């Protein structure tokens, strides 16, 4: 019910330190204390809520102030979003509406920390794929605020790294300038989408106040022996002048730029992540992460149990040499089937294993292998290659001499860098043996019978062909598991081997020969070469500004050019020293940023203990699946180190991880042309490969069954495909253009409505037009219809009207559905529920205020600009950001209706939905109004009605007085 004072004209006064808007009464003019930006007033001339004779109040037809004059206007304006959205964005910023209290926070309230994987601010700015995850987290943040939670929802920038440096080199602009410019653009774009970030907590990894603590963490790792230097084989790209991760090398060239990459040993900083392998593996079970992500991390860690076995090297006379090769195997029970050994190209013993006759072949092969990354070498689909070394080893189980090969599918960093190859029971070994004509011996069969399967049998079974009394080993007839234990026991007793747990996980290579990264806070004493960490009081070690930051071409990092910075002295002894000139990888700054958001202005600690205990861990972390392994694994590793030294109180940083899908470009329809230039079907692989494709405009395409065809010639079937958005394809959609044409709320709503958050989706312009119409219908229902002069016809919200039972049921079912779907991050079906509600509301004669206000609150997390405007126009004096979210009343969720069959002269002609307590007369009236049944009843004479409540209504017509044709 509206009170009289609510109808008085007023102006909004903004309080910069509150989430509310104060309304001075009865003032009707602005004063010197007016807000910094114009806001909508409810004027007497266009009454905001004037009563009508029917007891309704209309919503103001005044247009919201605050639109920008030069902003592109939409072609068909369903509602004035171009005025509403900038207005409320300024309001939120001016009032710091979404500021999360810091020291003054009420810790008795529950907390909710929802975080996006912060972006790298590229020069291209945002594309429409970015808002997908950001909108999802914003809906959760707004929803939880309305539920009374303290919400932490910040944003920052992962701004160091190779892309920025390469762009700077190409353009001749310092990376700091381009990065800051890109950050400003990203920030503007994010604000234009109405995301409720607490911008007071904004951080950037390139700021010294931030990377001071990145350097501090490195020092803690160094103190605990978790950071060390070692000479390791690396992927070196001469053109980029840096070491690349395996994931950054494709087919022997760099992912960025396509430059040649070689393998060479270099002294590098390493982080001992392997020391945490078991904990990283075990703690996955307690996390609410996608199972696929957890499985990827398990595979990356790659824990396996097996044995290390010793193989003696034989000389040219077949006698044992003093050299032994140790191999690691996860299947020791197959040792009798080992018919050759394979060593990695980088194995330290390889030079002593090569015969003179094979030396040139081996040398050439090793040179070729150095040009491949580890990922390329171990790719299962690629054909395996190798070269015989000319040397043999003795199988310790059966004493047979077996050849030693060098092959790049064995990695020097995994296990011992050498394997015993059992081609009968390993697919890779089998393919290799077939290619190079190496013997194959089956030692495991499903039923204990020796059989040549014609392919590798990789499963477990019963052991055969595996007995040698001379060495005291007989495992014939044992199961695979029993035989494995027996072989390990024999190896340990005979000194031929031992039990071993191994990991695929390698220590983290933590140095980059680049300029644009965090300086590593160590010095090397000139007189002794000793590595000395900086004192914590010397942090941050500022990255010096360089005019020439291009690669040196010598392998020396660009920082070596900063001679006055490099040449320094130990602060304690004064002895001359040289600074480390490598920088940290881009992963460093993103390993712990979620902690800094909890306490971003703390100059004394990485994060205050009380704040960390309150906010940790992150409740929901949303980002792309491409970060499923490395970023998440590295962040977990650092978090566990920080847990061990008492900086954090939780074992894991992110309780729930959600990977949003990608948004593909609009579907393209393609046909081929034959030799005469005529269009022809392009729905077969052969045609697609052999003939040039031609893109067909969407307006010339129609659906025919499961295919797409030309409208003018349905016999021509088209190939339909959606590609990932990229500049080269020309299918990138700029969110700025969408916001200008349809509004930010339409973009937000559409990206959530496209489909399940975790699925990949295809962009469709017609799709966004649909949700834009939904918002327009919402506006018209409450505010009114647009008129030719730019004003709006009055809407019809009832002030005094009590909602009907039907309306309450409709509303509370919508509340229950939207609530359930937000909680389950199924945002698309929540939107569907609101659309269904709106369709129902348009059929009502009256629209009670309480029902409409609840619907506006439901809409607000999805379309916050429109919701705030509607809430204001409904006469509320505070932002709805902290208004309690509606709760469904179980009373109205129960269905008390039944589907009643209706018979005409004993024949069922249709059904109607009625209340369980519906009377016979009410049921008959409903049947008469039903479109399907009315044709049987209109103008007919009813002889009698037979009504069984909740069961059936049978209308018996007077045949003598009935119209012809009704039986």
UniProtKB/TrEMBL annotation:
Keywords (A to Z) from UniProt: Aminoacyl-tRNA synthetase, ATP-binding, Ligase, Nucleotide-binding, Protein biosynthesis
PROSITE patterns recorded: AA_TRNA_LIGASE_I
Enzyme Commission number(s) from the entry: 6.1.1.4
Domain Aminoacyl-tRNA synthetase class Ia: 721-752
GO CC, alphabetical: cytosol; mitochondrion
Superkingdom of origin organism: Eukaryota
InterPro entries membership: aa-tRNA-synth_I_CS, aa-tRNA-synth_Ia, Leu-tRNA-ligase, Leu_tRNA-synth_edit, M/V/L/I-tRNA-synth_anticd-bd, Methionyl/Leucyl_tRNA_Synth, Rossmann-like_a/b/a_fold, tRNAsynth_Ia_anticodon-bd
The keyword Ligase is assigned to this record: yes
Catalyzed reactions per annotation: tRNA(Leu) + L-leucine + ATP = L-leucyl-tRNA(Leu) + AMP + diphosphate
Any one GO biological process: post-embryonic development
Domain Methionyl/Leucyl tRNA synthetase: 117-249
The Methionyl/Valyl/Leucyl/Isoleucyl-tRNA synthetase anticodon-binding domain, residue ranges: 808-915
Top-level class of the enzyme under EC nomenclature: ligase
Domain Leucyl-tRNA synthetase editing: 298-491
GO molecular function: aminoacyl-tRNA deacylase activity; ATP binding; leucine-tRNA ligase activity
TM annotation in the entry: none
Family, as annotated: Belongs to the class-I aminoacyl-tRNA synthetase family.
Protein name: leucine--tRNA ligase
Source lineage: Eukaryota, Viridiplantae, Streptophyta, Embryophyta, Tracheophyta
